[in-house]
Design a protein that fits this description.
This is Thiol:disulfide interchange protein. It comes from Salmonella enterica I. By secondary structure, this protein is an alpha+beta fold. It is 30% helix and 13% strand. It is built from 1 helix and 4 strands. It has a two-stranded antiparallel ribbon. Strands 3-4 form a two-stranded antiparallel sheet. A hairpin with a 7-residue loop joins strand 1 (49-51) and strand 2 (59-61). It is elongated and about 75 Å long.
Length: 89
């Protein structure tokens, strides 16, 4: 019984080492763990109309996203009170 308890840390180490080596082998084969596939890639942007937070009276629509320029749709930091999303280019 005591011998089994002494082998437990070694067994845990070997399991962790095997998992890390398995992931390294996957990375060597071309698997990129930072590549996140999006379910929305290739789908049309829904119609929307948002007022700019920086210049009131200026509105953005879905066509802004189809002009070929990169932009980021944000709705504020987590935990903030809900507000209309803004567009920053």
């Amino acid at each position: 019984m005591k011998r089994n308890v002494l082998l437990l840390p070694l067994l845990i180490f070997l399991l962790i080492a095997a998992a890390l080596l398995w992931q390294l082998a996957r990375n060597a084969e071309g698997d990129d763990p930072t590549n996140l596939e999006s379910a929305l890639t290739g789908k049309p942007v829904p119609a929307f109309r948002l007022e700019s937070l920086e210049t009131p009276g200026q509105y953005y629509e879905a066509e802004v996203l189809t002009q070929g320029n990169r932009c980021c749709l944000t709705s504020g930091p987590p935990g903030a009170r809900p507000a209309a999303p803004s567009i920053s280019t």
